[in-house]
Amino acid sequence: MTNVKLNKFGFLSFLFSALLLTTSLPLQAKVDERLYDRLKGRDFMISMGSGPTPINVFQPLDTIPLESGKPVNLGKFFDHKENLAAVALKNGKLVYERYEKKGGFADKFPAHGMSMTKTAVGLVIGHLLCDGKIQSLDDTMGKYSPNLAKSIYNEIKIKDVLRMASGVNRDRKNERDYNQILRNRFEDGTNDSAAVIQSLKSAYTKPGKISSYHTLDVTAAAVLANDISGISVDQMFFDKIYTKMQPEGKMIWWADKNGNSLGMAGLNMVARDWARFGQYMVDEMRNGSCIGKYIEDGIKNSIKTNSRDYQKYGYFFWVSNFSGKEYIVLTGKGGQVMVPNHYDDNVVVVLSASNFKYGKKDIITDIMAKAVRKLRQSN
């Protein structure tokens, strides 16, 4: 496995291919056109190394195609123009796949998972715990991180940060400002994750009360992982998880000016590799490994959130109740959703431009809940 770092001035061949693709993608009346333009334009160009946000690129050496299983027809759930890609795995085998090819999306398209990135950061923290580099999730952030010891996160427990219950922020009103700084939208050299966290002067409330979804807690978690390991989160994810997934595409992750991967977003993988990530979680839970138990602990310790009354929040993932059972749900802006179903050994992931709706149906509470049930009931 090799790691290659790109900056915004590099790899003209990527830029050329990006231009070819973006000029071929028509607007679609039924999708969120603004988000669609972002996915096929700005985000794609950044991930090809031609935007203001630095990126890190990781190339797998050993590519193993997914084994095909007995097809399961999930078309009635995902045959919508808002859907850009959908992949389903059953017992680790590919049983359904769909791409909005007229829009230029295909199996090799590097899909930005948006906030599904946060779950990858959470699993890196889990591996630090399993490796003994973190003794307890009840320890404070400052115990392990010199950078966080100089911030308002010093005395906040790691577990509360994982559940976005630090109390640092009240709501998401100022989140866009921090996101733009971290993504270097202003190109003024302020895109330093540790410096952003250290710039915070006060917290809104005491930690542990309620989950308040925001960029800041996952950014602090990324700083924690960097300080403990001495390497970027994306390198740890690559070493501990990505190489175990037997991926078939490159992994691209947005970074700050120091080369440290961003926590809130920026992880790009092909749709099949997003599904492989979900399968990794399923396998670890079903095998009862240390990281699997950590993920299950995140379900058990999930708490209410002030942003969604139909879900709780675990260790940088959402928890939904489908048919009386609690399922892990990864979500990202615009309808990026994945359900790693550890009960029945299957995974469903969709990439969208839709604001979490296909037509009038909600992706999480309606579409995915029914797709998971259909996949479970299939022979």
Describe this structure in words.
It is a single chain. The chain is α+β, with helices and mostly antiparallel strands and 379 residues long. Helix content is 35%, strand content 18%. The chain has an 8-stranded antiparallel beta sheet, sandwiched between helices. Strands 1-2-6-7-5 form a 5-stranded antiparallel beta sheet. A two-stranded antiparallel sheet has the order 14-15. The longest helix is centred in the last third of the chain and has 17 residues, at 271-287.
Concise account of the structure shown:
With 379 residues, the protein is an alpha+beta fold.
Please specify the SSE layout and strand pairing.
Layout lengths: L1 E5 L5 H11 L10 H8 L1 H6 L7 E5 L15 H4 L4 E8 L2 E7 L11 E2 L4 H14 L15 H4 L8 H5 L12 H8 L10 H6 L16 H15 L3 H8 L10 E4 L12 E3 L1 H17 L2 H11 L2 E2 L7 E2 L4 E5 L2 E8 L3 E6 L4 E7 L4 E2 L2 E2 H15 L2
Question: Can you identify the CATH class of the largest domain?
Answer: Alpha Beta
Low-confidence stretches are 1-30
> Distance N terminus to C terminus?
37 Å
Overall spatial form: globular
Question: What is the correct CATH architecture of the largest domain?
Answer: 3-Layer(aba) Sandwich
- Strand % is 15-25%
| Largest β sheet strand count, sense and barrel closure | 8 strands, antiparallel
Number of individual domains: 2
Query: What's the rounded overall pLDDT mean?
Result: 89
Radius of gyration: 19 Å
Biggest sheet, strands in spatial order?
4-3-13-12-11-10-9-8
- The total count of helices amounts to 14
Percent helix, as a range, is: 25-40%
* CATH level-3 fold name of the largest domain: Beta-lactamase
* Number of DSSP E strands: 15
Alpha-beta content class: alpha+beta
Element order: H for helix, E for strand? EHHHEHEEEHHHHHHHEEHHEEEEEEEEH
